[in-house]
User: Fold this.
Amino acid sequence: MLILGIDTSGKHGSVALLRATDDALLTLEFVPLAGGQYSELLVPSIAGMLERQGAGRSSLGLIAVASGPGSFTGLRVAIATVKGLAEAFSTPVVAVSVLEAVAIAGPMEGRVVAALDAQRSEVFYGEYLVQRSQADQAQMIHESLASFEGFAAALATTDAKQVITPDETIASRLRDVGVESHLLPRPNAEAYARIAHRKFCAGIRADVATLDANYLRRSDAEIFSAPQSGITPA
Assistant:
C-alpha cells in the first residue's frame, strides 16, 4: 500500500510517499515545501513524486494529513487537496493533530504536554497520554490555546511528566519561569504518514465529507473583520 503524507501546518512543510509492507514502512520519497507557497507547490509536488515512483494518484492506499493547529492558510490548502484526491479516487484519509505528533515524537511515556508557538505571545498546547508499548499511541486529554502566562499556569496544575516542543521560543520562555522542556525537531510529512498508518490499521479514518482542520483560533480575516464594539461574532 502506498501512503501519501502531507504537512503544511507550519512555516515549512513537506510531502512524503511511503510503502507499507507486511513488516515495515519504507520511505520512497520526501519533498520539502517552502512556506508561503503551499498553494503553488503542493499539488505539483505530489504529482511529481508519484510520477517519479511510477505510480498514479489512484494507486494511493492512504492519505495522511497534518490537521493542525498551525498555519490557517497552509491547513486550508492541505485539507482542500486531500478532499479532492480522496473523493476522486475513494482513498481513505487519516488526519493527525500536530500536537499529537509532537507528543509521540518525544522520549517520554505517560502524561505529556505538547506545545507549539501560536504567535502573538500565545501557545497551542495539548495534554496526551503516550503509550510506547502500544505502537507509540497518544490519547488526547485536551487541546487548547492560551496566552503564555495562561499556559504556564495550566502546567502548574497538571501531572504531566514532560513538556515537549519544537519551538525554541517556548523552550526559552519556559526556562525563564523554571520549567524544563524537551526541544525536538518539528514532525514532518513522513512522521504523519507513519502515525496515520498505525491509526488506519486500528480502524481509524476520517469522514472526508466533514473533514476540516483543527484551527483552534479564527483566521486573521475573521478577527480583524469583527465589529469594534467589543462583541465578537459567535
User: Anything to note?
Assistant: The helical segments are 38-52, 72-89, 98-105, 148-155, 168-176, 189-201, 220-224. The mean pLDDT is 90. The chain has two domains: 2-97+187-224, 107-183. The beta strands are 2-7, 12-20, 25-34, 60-66, 93-96, 110-117, 122-131, 137-147, 162-165, 181-183.
